[in-house]
Every structure is written in C-alpha cells, then in structure tokens.
Design a protein that fits this description.
The protein is mostly helical. It has helices spanning 3-30, 34-64, 73-99, 103-132, 142-152. Helix 1 packs antiparallel against helix 4, helix 2 (34-64) runs antiparallel to helix 3 (73-99) and helix 3 (73-99) crosses helix 4 (103-132).
Length: 161
C-alpha cells in the first residue's frame, strides 16, 4: 500500500488507538472528569492527525532524496522525536486551557504523554511497516536490489547479472 491511501490508513489507525489511550491517561493524571480529558484527547487527536499528515509528507519528501534507503533505528528515532517535538508546541496551550492547568503543568503532563507516545509511535511504525510494507520512499531502487542480489550470489554467471 502506497501514497495517500497508506497515509490515511496510517493516521486513522494511529489516532483511533491514541484517542482511547490518551483519554484514559489524561483523566488519570489530571484528576479531571473523563469528559474533559476526552475532549482534550479528541482535540489533540485532530491536531495530531493534521500534524501527522504534514510531518510524514515532509519526512518522506526528505527521505526520498537520501542516498541510503530503508528505515534504520536512527532514522526511526529521529522521525519519532521530530514528530513529538512539533506536537508538544501545539498541545501544551490546548491542555492548559481545556484541563485548567498552568502552562508549566500542561508542559509537565505533556512530557509524560510525549514519552509514552514516543514509544507508541516507534512501536506502531514498526508494526505498521511490518503489516503493510515500507513506503516507496524507503524501498531500494530496482538497480540497488539487483546489486544486492548480485552481491548475495557471487557464483552466478556473469550473463545472469
């Protein structure tokens, strides 16, 4: 699965799971009624959904121009950190307003959620790529695949290479 369909499936699954988990977490840590936490979770999900589309589009644009293809551990960590940093900038004021917190308290709450979601994002991406395959931007070019196949079988006749 590639392109827009991949992005829509990705963000839909990611955010549905995220809303469920973050509603419970925000309610528990803020000691506010579940309805307030639920509104904060849905609002943050909408923001995260739009940010996710924009961020992943930009990331894949950058990724497609890299000489080294694939998604290494470092590339996945950088991806998760960049996404979460942008989200923190948008969500702290939202949490402060909706949950009646100071900006500092909202930042501390968001740090806890950020740590949780960095792990969640990393694991979700691993699982998503395992189930749906890598996006085109992370797949080796056909010439690279042929070179890798040649390197894997040095005994193959030259005419077959």
């Amino acid at each position: 699965m590639q392109g827009l369909k991949r992005k829509l499936v990705y963000v839909t699954l990611f955010e549905l799971i995220a809303v469920c988990m973050s509603s419970v977490l925000l309610s528990l840590i803020s000691e506010r009624p579940f309805v307030y936490a639920g509104v904060a979770a849905v609002a943050s999900s909408i923001i995260a959904l739009l940010w996710n589309l924009a961020y992943n589009t930009g990331f894949e644009y950058w990724e497609a121009r890299q000489t080294k293809k694939g998604r290494s551990l470092l590339r996945r960590v950088v991806h998760a950190l960049g996404f979460e940093f942008g989200l923190v900038l948008m969500l702290v004021p939202l949490f402060a307003y909706l949950l009646g917190l100071s900006l500092w308290e909202a930042f501390v709450y968001d740090l806890g959620l950020m740590l949780f979601f960095m792990v969640y994002t990393f694991l979700f991406n691993l699982a998503f790529d395992h189930v749906f395959g890598l996006p085109a931007s992370a797949q080796p070019k056909p010439a690279e695949s042929a070179k890798a196949a040649d390197a894997a079988d040095p005994q193959a006749p030259v005419a077959c290479r």
